[in-house]
Amino acid sequence: MARTDSASEKALGSRRKTFRRADLWLLLLIALSSVLLFVFFLWKDTRIRTPVLEISQDGQVVGVYPLSEDRELLIGSKESGGYNVVRIENGKIRITEADCPDRSCVRSIAIDRRGGSIICLPHRLVLRIADGAGGIPDAVAE
Ligand SMILES: [Zn+2]
Fold first, then answer.
1. Claim: this prediction has a pTM higher than 0.85
2. Which among 76, 93, 116, 141 has most CB atoms closer than 10 A?
3. How far is the CA of 49 from the centre of ligand 1 (A)?
4. Second CATH level (architecture) for the domain 51-141
5. Domain spans, the chain
6. Which residues contact 123 (CB under 8 A, 6 or more apart)?
7. pLDDT tens-digit series, residues 91-116
8. Using CA atoms, how far apart are residues 121 and 115, in angstroms rounded to an integer?
């Protein structure tokens, strides 16, 4: 191959080379940050893959339930008073019935896997979406 590079062409070539190297670093940086972002979102996704309904009363967890199964739960007792009926339906949770004076818990909007909470202040009841990645304790769920 007979190349006839002039001095000016060489200078241009080396300048182009440094520019390319800077580009390469930039590309590498972008690639690295996108990999980090991907890993982060993957990790974040696994974190919310198993959302569960956590029911607590008086600051004590009284039940943990998967959102995947529809069910109706009676918290408290209708006979002695102070009850809430919690319904899990199509992954959404709401309180359908309660005998608390303000009934604001019944009027609360449904919560789902995206998070949130429903609180019944008079009954000191808190429903919230928790991370069930550690597994759902069967003894509590039944
Ligand atoms: Zn209430």
1. no
2. 93
3. 29
4. Sandwich (2.60)
5. 1-47, 51-141
6. 57, 75, 76, 82, 83, 84, 98, 100, 105
7. 999 999 999 999 999 999 999 998 89
8. 19
Q: Taking a C-beta distance cutoff of 8 angstroms, is the pair 108, 27 a contact?
A: no
- What is the distance in A from the centroid of ligand 1 to the CA of 117? 13
AA letter at 62? V
The Cα–Cα gap between 31 and 78 comes to 60
Tens digit of each residue's pLDDT (9 = 90 or more) over 1-58: 555 555 555 555 556 666 688 889 999 999 999 999 988 877 765 555 688 999 999 9
pLDDT-derived band at 141 (thresholds 50, 70, 90) equals very low
Distance 70 CA to ligand 1 centre (A): 21
* Cβ neighbours for 100, distance < 8 A, ≥ 6 positions apart: 82, 84, 120, 121, 122, 123
Q: Residue 92: beta bridge partners? A: 89
